[in-house]
Amino acid sequence: MTKLQNTELSGIKWRKLVYCELGGGGAAPGHCGGGGEPLEDPVLGSYARCLAADILCVWRRVSTPRPADMFEPGPPPPPPLSLSTSKELWIFWYGEEPDLNVLIAPELNTSGKIIECLNVQCAR
Predict the structure, then answer these.
(1) Which domain holds residue 38?
(2) pLDDT over 70 (residue 80)
(3) What is the CATH number of the domain that holds 49?
(4) 28-38: per-residue pLDDT in tens?
(5) Within a domain: residue 58?
(6) What does the pLDDT read at residue 21?
(7) How many Cβ atoms sit within 10 Å of the Cβ of residue 100?
(8) Is residue 75 included in any domain, yes or no?
(9) pTM above the 0.85 mark?
(10) Count of structural domains within the chain
């Protein structure tokens, strides 16, 4: 059995990067192009590179916003397991921020929204 060690949670820092939020890049809301290989996706490729560099990270799909007018539904949402949905990449570290320049896809730095928090009390 593995023994767990105590960690000071107040020192954990994180960064959230959002790709294709609200149809960024001229796409319809929730549609982010894609359809290629999974590692060609900016979020999934960045996720894989962070894991290979031993940086703790997670990614998640972001739900497609509902249209404001229910009588004008707009384009249908992408299929549930499609690569063309909006995604977030969350990167966690303790202490000094790791150099993420070579790990994070350029699309996330230019079109993504970056939120930095200094402790776990930071609100979304």
Answers:
(1) 11-64+81-117
(2) no
(3) 3.30.70
(4) 444 566 567 88
(5) yes
(6) 58
(7) 19
(8) no
(9) no
(10) 1
